[in-house]
Amino acid sequence: MAAVLRCMECGAEYSLGEIRYRCRCGGLLDVAHDLGSLRVSRELFEEREAGQGPEPWRRSGVWRFRELVLPVESQLIVSRPEGNTPLYRSAALARWVGLEDFSVKHEGENPTGSFKDRGMTVGITWAKALGAKAVACASTGNTAASMAAYAAMAGLKAIVFVPQGKVALGKIAQALAYGALTLEVEGDFDAAMSLVQESCRELGIYLLNSVNPFRIEGQKTIVFELIQDLGWDPPDWIVFPAGNLGNTAAFGKALWELRELGLIPRMPRLAAVQAAGANPLYRSYARGFAPLEPVRAETVATAIRIGNPVSFPRAVRSLRWTEGVVVEVTDQEIMDAKAVVDAAGIGCEPASAAAVAGARKLVSQGVIKRSERVVAVLTGNLLKDPEATVSYHAGKLQGIEPRFANRPRRIAPSLEAVAEALEEGRR
Ligand SMILES: *Cc1c(COP(=O)(O)O)cnc(C)c1O
Ligand SMILES: [Zn+2]
Question: What is the DSSP letter of 24?
């Protein structure tokens, strides 16, 4: 049996080639692979990691797992390549979090600086295969940057819908530079999200938000790759920031498939971290997965500033499959964690630091045991949000105490002034 689109609510099936993002019943769609008929093994993925051959997809950390991602002809693949991101360890960071075995998978080291490239290589490949001429997304910034870049490489027109004034500088710069038609919607992300869905439906544009099941398939490879990085010995926990809940959806599906295929003996537990000011999943979780109640979102971590997450039902499914937990962290905790990640020389954007802040909180609550093996996913690059970083260190970030500030010092152009500054730095 070939892969199909299957509704997660009613089980209705559609062919992969049909352009639709939801079931007739309104349910979200999954790409359902016929796992029993796939010929995949750890050895196959190990062999491919060597990355021989001229085509970029052969060096991609997404297409290495292509049987579990998308059945498509090799010539159609649009790849940078993406993935193959580093797994960093820092003794100082582990100590701060309170764990012996803590590492971070840095998805901010993808081609456009966020994990969105993993879903986008699949989404753009499929858009081309379907014959689309134009693609669109609503975005807090990183999806826009990624889609704009991949669309430009594939020769597709890109239209991005962003919340006016709420996109980090590096991300808006990328969308403009890569040539996307950039629509600054007067409203928040959730307003941009409903407008893009309506526009795609009415204007015949292919929608590349994470409601699109093909993007979820690409994002699964974060988990495939991190387990491969660990020699196929899964960690106890995977901790990550949760906004529109695409990753929460993708990570659960990835783990479920790996276990079904017998590629891992047990599933790690997922820990989804939300900003306290944008916490609809946390609120639902705290009440035994009560129905989603959208919130008006506000947080310094603009990438997860989302009040009405589109993948909510898929996320709940993932958390149930993996005995997952949800935790919320304040903006102060996020910026403290970011300063520690940054000072370790690793660096990330605020939303990514939420994962580290969440890990630390779960350790302090005793939910994660100090002896457990934990991987946090850093979703975006330090350079995405220079304003947040510089304002923090200058002590100018509203409502945030800069506990780890590294203030620039203005000096006169003299050796004495340098000596004085060094002396001060020593104190
Ligand atoms: C998109 C994004 C998120 C949120 O991921 P979801 O899959 O929407 O939950 C978190 N961090 C960064 C840096 C992002 O770009
Ligand atoms: Zn359905």
Answer: T
Is residue 312 in some structural domain?
Answer: yes
- What contacts 24+ positions apart, CB below 8 Å, involve 12-19? 16/71, 17/130, 19/130, 19/206
Range of the domain at 381: 87-113+215-393
The bridge status of strand 4-7 relative to strand 29-32 is: antiparallel
For residue 351, the ligand 1 atom closest to its alpha carbon is 11
**DSSP states along 93-151:** HHHHHT-SEEEEEEGGGSTTSBTHHHHHHHHHHHHHHTT-SEEEEE-SSHHHHHHHHHH
Count of domains in the chain?
1
Residue 321 lies in a domain: yes
Q: How far is the CA of 413 from the centre of ligand 1 (A)?
A: 43
User: What is the rounded CA–CA span in Å between residue 121 and residue 218?
Assistant: 7
In a domain, 350, yes or no: yes
pLDDT value of position 425: 77
Task: Confirm if 171 and 189 have CB atoms less than 8 A apart.
Answer: no
* pLDDT-above-90 percentage for the chain: 95
Rounded Cα distance, 293 and 119, in Å: 27
- 388: amino acid identity, one letter: A
Kindly report, residue by residue over 209-250, the tens digit of the pLDDT.
Answer: 989 999 999 999 999 999 999 999 999 999 999 999 999 999
The residue contributing the CA closest to ligand 1 atom 8 is 244
Tokens of 110: 């993808």
Query: Using CA atoms, how far apart are residues 221 and 61, in angstroms rounded to an integer?
Result: 7
**Residue 332 is part of a domain; what is its CATH number?**
3.40.50.1100
Contact 305, 299 (CB under 8 A): yes
Domain membership flag for residue 280: yes
pTM for this one? Answer: 0.97
Task: For residue 54, report the distance from its CA to the centre of ligand 1, in Å.
Answer: 31
Per-position DSSP letters for 345-404, written without gaps between them: T----HHHHHHHHHHHHHHHTTSS-TTSEEEEEE-B-GGG-HHHHHHHHTT-STT---TT
**With a 6 A CB cut-off, is 303 part of the ligand 1 pocket?**
yes
